[in-house]
Fold this protein.
Amino acid sequence: MATTGTIPTQGESPGTGRRLAPRVPVWDNARFACVTLVVIGHGVQRLTAESNNALIVYLFIYAFHMPAFALISGYFSKSGPPGVHQLKKVITDILLPYFIMETIWTVVQFLVEGKQELNPTSPSWTLWFLLALGIFRLILPYLALVRFPLFWALLFSVGVGYLPNVDSTFSLSRAIGILPFFVLGWKLKEWGIIERWPTLKAAAWWIRALAVGIFGAWLYVVVANIQVWRDVDLRFWFFYDDSYSGLGEDQWWAGGVRLAIIVLAVLLSASFFVLLPRGETWFTDFGQATMYVYLLHSFILYPIRETGVISGERTSAVWLLSMILACIAISIALSSPLVRRIFRPLIEPKPEWLFLDADEKQRRS
């Protein structure tokens, strides 16, 4: 299941008594690249209201970065019935960090905004993905029992948009919305497609060229139609959160739009993975700390977003580029060993006292 400090993970945690699987550089490269795109997307979000350039960057990133994250998570997930170790990991890797960070956010918002609300059913900002991961891990063993699990995941994702009563409580609408990517990642592991990549080295150049072409085509579509995308609020479709009626599109064909967005996300995610370095790079080790970057970057961006530092006159291309570079620096800084050492009790709690020991479990049974 999980190695330390990563959201979608490979191997086993140190200290569990289980052998740690060798890490594959490409996945750590993918994790760090994905989480950096998350930070950039959140960093430029406030600029999108007044800057078309910022909206172009935002739409380009949001079309695939969280689907890619979900896909990686699915790739390293197990579909069998969870054992004791796996169930404990859900608590220590997902639920406890969620409640710790949600409590901290409640205090921060009370001190800064005077907001007096402790509601763990409504995740703050980035915390929705932790709950989504928990939901994915719980339902995957059931999906694995049925024929065509990817079809059912697609059906659930498209169908939930027609149900306005399924909302962001416990991130349910968003989790169901991106479920196909998680299931696709799990199926890719079963099909062994990724493992066959080394055998395609002779043809790798044209695959990479195709990936560059797909990214270029998507960038052209975004740039050429930026005012259209602004008018229809395309960015909200990429959240997989609101119902179609909530997005202002209650027509019967609205599900087709989500299906098209899912296909787009799969194409862009595939291109993203193809273009990643396969071997060790200067940022490979940072991929082991994605949980730290994901959960902590919002506290750095929060004062920037709330104080209006990047708004009004500060929406030029220079400010946009500066914000992108700052977000990359934030991702690197939060991946450092020092940050991981300081914040490990919050991000990776190890509450052994919480669990029954073997003798007590035997007595209770």
Remarks:
- The chain has a mean pLDDT of 86.
- The radius of gyration is 21 Å.
- The chain has one domain: 25-364.
- Residues 25-364 form one domain.
